[in-house]
């Protein structure tokens, strides 16, 4: 048994739902008890979808268990096919139905339904959401791909590509797709099929007609792409175009496979990120310590952008999906940090507190952690929140995605010039620096100034985090046995701008403890400053 | 109660059935079976853990359970929770690990990290029920180790046994056996049953105190280790209509239920308070004087909202079991027209007085077949539809105005001073629909 408060991934049948909901004219008959319908609200509320997910739940109850739950399944499947007239159905069991072993696959087969029924085996007690999505997509492709499709010769026609991976409830999948289409258009590559998003089962039939595949989200599409590689000899583009560098590599790779000229795509004049990053205002970004955590693909991409395109220092890197941890380990080695591969958010919270980053790039879970620790944060990966479905176009991929990333990561920080102005004015009697920077009104300044309280390593402690209930953790709290601040040093600390004060306090205390000094006076404060100077 | 007439979902009349029987016993009820679009009983943990601040809820279940709690809570609130899930894994099921030992390990780790916990609920789920993991035994075994510091109780919030608010019912029913005994022959005591927001509970306690009813307890108590006593001299008022099992457990300890309308709206609240006043021999004149200011405030506040709601047609999809009393309030005090009142489970005894108020043309349904129910909504075209979060946006996209049912469970809606807040929850979506030009 594993103790969990929050989870990064849902169960595997939710992954299957993400695929089914992304597709058209596909229906999912899910053997499940009452209550599992909660998953519908992920799609209708978080993503604001206008239609219910195409899922029929059998809704068995305790009193059905001794009787015929199999009949319930068959009735539900019949009704679903009759009511929704799908081109194909997928059938499977949720965690509870898995235990009663009704065999939805066998039942569906025995029914002689007028449409293909694709059976899913998604072991709920071993696997999780992303794996469920990948397996579902793979089974759909394997079952529905028309293996008799023969590609026409390349001469006299444009190259054709499949874009694989975007699903419902994906982090910016909707907008990434727009950017990828733009790039392919510039390269003169035709899109044969996008799947799962927007594809019908019949569309999947012609998946073999493409010259190559673009694996946009490896977590979801890699399994299917491997099968397609073997059965249709379709090579795959595996570079994920998040960041300017990765987008350039992606363009080169696609151009190579398509025999196209990459120049027009590479010369996209809307790519502003490189200049924004080189402009002098960005100097202050140099060496900012960032902690990165998310799904492997987004975490690795973020680390590369942080290092190469923004000049940050990566002080922590990890992912929650073990299946793709290899890439994270390799990137962590390049960053010179220990990779953190875990799906225990308490371990992530500990690691963030220990790393003392200046910016956290993570999921919604890390956003909550950063809020508790008073750190600036930007979201880079699923699991998603309603805020991750903005009304505006907000991609992560392509040059426009890099522009968006620059804004999203840099805005939570205190800006370069403002940093100087705050220093200049902080002793002015009319200036109150605890009000925080004007562009960050949404971040409670009180929270910004909060230090890591001694119980941060006790993450299950009842820390109230609702803004109105948050007791202002006094900055002067010291761990038991920690060095004591002299009044003079305490006053000096107050002169340091609020956004680095917490770090200065922690560093000084760490330094004092290291040196075995029992009191922190002015000397200790400045000795520590020198010690930690970069 | 006599057996209700059972109608087939498809052939049920879509509006104004000619049924015009006297009394509620003969009222036809549309009973349905099929896909239910409701939460399971685990969801109750979200408000119960805020109410009982010294209690922790440990669900023994699957990743789905953890994901449900996170999704249901994540959309609505953000707070460090006093709940968690012990997620069962392959090795627990394959018998490679003894589930009881594993649970003991998880509980010990949890209690080590949270010394502030005084009551721990082990909450059963669909998978734990199906594999017949004996949580009663686990609670007894672990309780023997951790008492007196921590009391360990158990109940089931599984979807195969409980629908949404029935989780609270199961939790409170689990508390009843550990309530101290009120010896026979003690002075009569009043017990308010059902979790209410603290602000509402305090309003009621003030009113009872003014009437001179001094011995008043609440279940759940804010501190789960500080439960009120119960015995033959206990008279209890249900504050919520979904507490069938809790009521049975209280009856089993000799307590007696005071029959009244549920305290929604001015009339419901007056009836509910009056039941206690009568039982405790409060002078009628005094009672009237004490409730007059609150009732007047409710009347004035409701009169402002009435023009927005009067004559509007409303359908309730089954969700929290609050549907029947809320429908009565909207019909009687705001002049709304009830089209369909769906409820996951109809407790005929507790709702008898509520049902008497509903007009014969109101279609009452119990259980759910969501597709057929949506077909009826499309045919009825009500002005507002009360439904769960999974259905609200799809219905809005079809042009229906909706009210999320879950807000009715999470907001303070009981009593005189919340009557207008309750009405406002229904008025706002309609007002918004009229405001928007996009």
Instruction: Give me the side-by-side strand order of the main sheet of chain B.
Output: 1-2-13-12-11-14-15
Output the number of helix runs of chain A: 23
CATH class of the largest domain in chain B: Alpha Beta
Give helix % range of chain A: 40-55%
The total strand number of chain A stands at 16
Structural class of chain A: alpha/beta
Q: Total domains of chain A, how many? A: 4
Helix percent band of chain B: 40-55%
Specify the number of helices of chain B: 17
Radius of gyration of chain A: 26 Å
List keywords for this structure.
heterodimer, A: 534 residues, alpha/beta, Rossmann fold, 4 domains, five-stranded parallel β-sheet, 16 strands, 12% strand, B: 438 residues, seven-stranded parallel β-sheet, four-stranded parallel β-sheet, disordered N terminus
What this model shows, in words?
The complex is a heterodimer of chains A (534) and B (438). Chain A is α/β, with parallel strands linked by helices. Chain A folds into 4 domains: 119 residues, Rossmann fold (3-Layer(aba) Sandwich), CATH 3.40.50.1980; 107 residues, Nitrogenase molybdenum iron protein domain (Rossmann fold, 3-Layer(aba) Sandwich); 141 residues, Rossmann fold, CATH 3.40.50; 113 residues, Helicase, Ruva Protein, domain 3 (Orthogonal Bundle). Helix content of chain A is 44%, strand content 12%. Chain A has 23 helices and 16 strands. Chain A has a 5-stranded parallel beta sheet with strand order 12-11-10-13-14, sandwiched between helices. Chain A has a 4-stranded parallel beta sheet with strand order 3-2-4-5, sandwiched between helices. The longest helix of chain A has 18 residues. The two termini of chain A are 45 Å apart. The relative contact order of chain A is 0.08. With 438 residues, chain B is α/β, with parallel strands linked by helices. Chain B has 17 helices and 15 strands. In chain B, the strands form 3 sheets. In chain B, strands 1-2-13-12-11-14-15 form a 7-stranded parallel beta sheet, sandwiched between helices. The N terminus of chain B is likely disordered. Helices cover 44% and strands 16% of the residues of chain B. In chain B, α2 links the parallel β3 and β4. Chain B has 3 domains: 162 residues, 3-Layer(aba) Sandwich (Rossmann fold); 122 residues, Nitrogenase molybdenum iron protein domain (Rossmann fold, 3-Layer(aba) Sandwich); 103 residues, 3-Layer(aba) Sandwich (Rossmann fold). In chain B, α10 packs across α12. At the A-B interface, β1, α2, α4 and α5 of A face α2, β4, α3, α4 and α5 of B. β1 of chain A pairs antiparallel with β4 of chain B.
């Amino acid at each position: 048994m594993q103790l969990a408060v929050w989870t990064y991934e849902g169960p595997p049948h939710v992954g299957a739902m993400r695929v089914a909901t992304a597709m058209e004219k596909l229906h999912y008959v899910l053997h499940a008890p009452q209550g599992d319908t909660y998953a519908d609200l992920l799609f209708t509320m978080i993503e604001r979808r206008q239609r219910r997910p195409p899922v029929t739940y059998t809704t068995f109850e305790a009193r059905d268990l001794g009787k015929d739950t199999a009949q319930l399944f068959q009735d539900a499947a019949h009704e679903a096919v009759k009511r929704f007239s799908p081109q194909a159905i997928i059938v499977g069991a949720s965690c509870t139905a898995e235990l009663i072993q009704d065999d939805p696959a066998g039942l569906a087969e025995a029914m002689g339904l007028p449409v293909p029924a694709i059976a899913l085996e998604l072991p709920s007690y071993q696997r999780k959401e992303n794996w469920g999505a990948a397996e579902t997509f793979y089974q759909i492709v394997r079952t529905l791909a028309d293996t008799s499709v023969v590609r026409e010769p390349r001469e006299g026609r444009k190259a054709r590509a499949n874009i694989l991976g975007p699903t419902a409830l994906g982090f910016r999948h909707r907008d990434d797709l727009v950017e990828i289409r733009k790039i392919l258009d510039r390269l003169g590559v035709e899109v044969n099929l996008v799947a799962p998003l927007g594809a019908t089962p019949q569309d999947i039939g012609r998946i073999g007609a493409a010259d190559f595949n673009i694996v946009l989200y490896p977590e979801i599409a890699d399994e299917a792409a491997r099968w397609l590689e073997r059965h249709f000899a379709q090579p795959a583009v595996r570079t994920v175009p998040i960041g300017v560098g990765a987008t350039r590599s992606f363009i080169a790779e696609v151009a190579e496979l398509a025999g196209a000229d990459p120049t027009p795509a590479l010369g996209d004049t809307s790519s502003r990120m490189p200049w924004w990053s080189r402009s002098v205002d960005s100097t202050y970004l140099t060496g900012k310590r960032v902690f990165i955590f998310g799904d492997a693909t987004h975490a690795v991409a973020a680390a590369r952008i942080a290092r190469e395109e923004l000049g940050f220092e990566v002080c922590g890197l990890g992912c929650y999906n073990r299946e793709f941890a290899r890439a994270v380990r390799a990137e962590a080695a390049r960053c010179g940090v220990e990779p953190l591969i875990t799906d225990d958010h308490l371990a992530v919270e500990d690691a963030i507190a220990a790393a003392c980053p200046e910016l956290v790039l993570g999921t919604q879970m890390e956003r909550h952690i950063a809020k508790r620790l008073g750190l600036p944060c930007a979201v880079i990966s699923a699991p998603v929140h309603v805020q991750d479905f903005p009304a505006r176009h907000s991609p992560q991929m392509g040059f426009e995605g890099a522009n968006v990333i620059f804004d999203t990561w840099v805005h939570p920080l205190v800006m370069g010039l403002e940093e100087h102005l705050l220093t200049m004015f902080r002793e002015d009697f009319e200036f109150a620096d605890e009000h925080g920077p004007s562009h960050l009104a949404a971040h409670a300044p009180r929270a910004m100034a909060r230090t890591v309280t001694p119980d941060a390593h006790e993450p299950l402690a009842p820390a109230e985090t609702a803004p109105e209930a948050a007791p202002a953790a006094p900055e002067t709290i010291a761990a038991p046995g920690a060095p004591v601040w002299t009044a003079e040093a305490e006053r000096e600390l107050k002169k340091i701008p609020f956004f680095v004060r917490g770090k200065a306090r922690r560093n000084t205390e760490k330094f004092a403890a290291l040196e075995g000094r029992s009191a922190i006076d002015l000397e200790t404060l400045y000795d520590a400053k020198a010690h930690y100077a970069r | 109660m006599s057996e209700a007439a059972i109608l087939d979902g498809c052939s049920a009349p879509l509006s104004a059935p000619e049924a015009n029987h006297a009394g509620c016993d003969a009222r036809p009820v549309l009973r349905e079976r099929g896909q239910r679009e409701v939460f399971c009983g685990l969801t109750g943990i979200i408000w119960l853990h805020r109410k009982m601040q010294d209690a922790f809820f440990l669900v023994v279940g699957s990743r789905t359970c953890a994901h449900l709690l996170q999704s249901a809570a994540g959309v609505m609130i953000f707070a460090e929770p006093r709940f968690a899930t012990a997620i069962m894994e392959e090795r627990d099921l394959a018998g490679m690990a003894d589930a009881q030992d594993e649970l003991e390990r998880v509980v010990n780790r949890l209690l080590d990290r949270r010394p502030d916990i005084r009551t721990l609920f082990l909450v059963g789920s669909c998978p734990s029920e199906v594999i017949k993991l004996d949580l009663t035994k686990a609670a007894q075994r672990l309780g023997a180790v951790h008492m007196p510091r921590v009391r360990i109780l158990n109940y089931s919030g599984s979807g195969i046994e409980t629908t949404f608010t029935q989780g609270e019912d199961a939790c409170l029913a689990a508390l009843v056996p550990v309530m101290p005994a009120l010896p026979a022959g003690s002075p009569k005591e009043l017990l308010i049953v059902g979790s209410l927001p603290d602000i509402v509970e305090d309003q009621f306690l003030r009113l009872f105190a003014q009437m001179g009813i001094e011995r008043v307890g609440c279940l759940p108590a804010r501190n789960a280790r500080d439960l009120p006593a119960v015995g033959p001299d206990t008279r209890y008022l249900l504050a919520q209509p979904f507490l069938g099992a809790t009521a049975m457990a209280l009856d089993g300890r000799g307590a007696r239920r005071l029959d009244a309308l549920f305290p929604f709206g001015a009339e419901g609240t007056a009836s509910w308070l009056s039941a206690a006043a009568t039982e405790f021999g409060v002078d009628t004149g005094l009672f009237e004087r004490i409730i007059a200011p609150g009732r007047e405030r409710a009347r004035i506040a409701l009169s402002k909202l009435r023009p927005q709601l009067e004559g509007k047609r409303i359908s309730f999809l089954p969700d929290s079991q609050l549907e029947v009393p809320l429908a009565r309030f909207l019909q009687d005090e705001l002049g709304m027209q009830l089209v369909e009142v769906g409820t996951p489970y109809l407790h005929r005894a507790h709702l008898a007085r509520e049902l008497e108020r509903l007009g014969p043309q109101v279609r009452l349904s119990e259980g759910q077949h969501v597709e057929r129910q949506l077909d009826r909504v499309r045919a009825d075209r009500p002005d507002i539809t009360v439904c769960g979060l999974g259905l609200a946006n799809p219905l809005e996209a079809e042009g229906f105005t909706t009210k999320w049912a879950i807000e009715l469970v999470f907001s303070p809606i009981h009593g005189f001073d919340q009557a207008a807040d309750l009405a406002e929850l229904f008025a706002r979506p309609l007002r918004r629909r009229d405001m928007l030009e996009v």
